[in-house]
Amino acid sequence: MDNSSFINDMLREHGLKKTRIRSEMLSLFINNNFALSASDIILRMKAGNDRVTIYRALASFEENGILHKASEDRQGIKYAICENQYPDKKHSVQHAHFRCDECQKTFCLNDVVLPNVKIPNKDFSVNRVNYTIHGTCNECKDMPR
Amino acid sequence: MDNSSFINDMLREHGLKKTRIRSEMLSLFINNNFALSASDIILRMKAGNDRVTIYRALASFEENGILHKASEDRQGIKYAICENQYPDKKHSVQHAHFRCDECQKTFCLNDVVLPNVKIPNKDFSVNRVNYTIHGTCNECKDMPR
DNA sequence: AATATAAACGCAACTTTGTTGCTTTTAGAA
DNA sequence: TTCTAAAAGCAACAAAGTTGCGTTTATATT
Questions:
Q1: B122 secondary structure, DSSP code
Q2: How many whole angstroms separate alpha carbon B93 and alpha carbon B77?
């Protein structure tokens, strides 16, 4: 589907320039319900785009609150679009993520409220919480291994 | 302090050979209350040890249940010693971790019970949970930035 | 429409983390 | 003492990400 006007707004809103690469990147995030790494993006875009450009765009999108880090491991950092980008959805600042161990996809569980956990607060001051649930997603569950 | 007999037992128990490198590695884990990556280990051991040897030892220790992955990100995989190594402590299979954003150290919160969260189980089947609390550790809190 | 400029792009080079294949050394059992 | 699997060492490679620097371009302003 065509989200071009939506994407244009999103870029303009943050004072970012509308370029082919950045528009294509954002439409990837909009059209997928799972998080994407730089390599995921390169894989899905037509070839010939410099990796550096993708990395810098991701950094810029994160700084501007368009994307957030959904998962981070040795395979790379996966980003997802922030829910507050959609005018009709509230932003879940701290939400859980689900990571499928089969396909390595990471999904945002925007509706899952993060439980508050007591930790020895004389030793640590808490900043944020990363709650990632690992398992198998529905698609892989039905797949012959 | 000297843990050599403890370390010897630990290695023998798993049918692993007692070598200089592996003993030194284990004593690092015992004498630090935070998780260590391959690079952390190399930094703390006297130079001249092959990185590959460290990586393979870490893998072997994890397979044998001596170490577990405490955190994993772009900076590397950090391992911590499993609590059930100590005869007088029970093993907390699923425990939370604390990661200091200043010094990048990861601590095992063995006493923090993992909160159980409801997720749409028609979409996902849960396997395990990663609960990592980010913030500032006590040491860095008192440090002038 | 022309122009100025900051943002974005592209290229080369580099770093860090980790892996694989293969050979040599060695701990510890027989 | 001998034997052997485990551990160590070396070379080469790969993936993810970063930095510096010069070029191009979107867009605001004239």
A1: T
A2: 18
Query: Residue type for A70, please?
Result: A
Q: What is the pTM of this model?
A: 0.90
For helices B4-13 and B20-31, give the axis angle rounded to 10 degrees.
Answer: 110
Using only the alpha carbons of chain B, give its radius of gyration: 17
A19 touches strand C (CB under 7 A): yes
Q: Kindly identify which residue of chain B lies nearest to residue A94, measuring between CA atoms.
A: B133
Angle of the B51-63 helix axis to the B20-31 helix axis, nearest 10: 70
Among A115, A125, A134, beta carbon nearest to B141: A125
Read off the pLDDT of residues B72-101 as tens digits, 9 standing for 90 and up.
999 999 999 998 765 444 445 678 999 999
Q: What is the pLDDT of residues A39-80, one digit of tens each?
A: 999 999 998 999 999 999 999 999 999 999 999 999 999 999
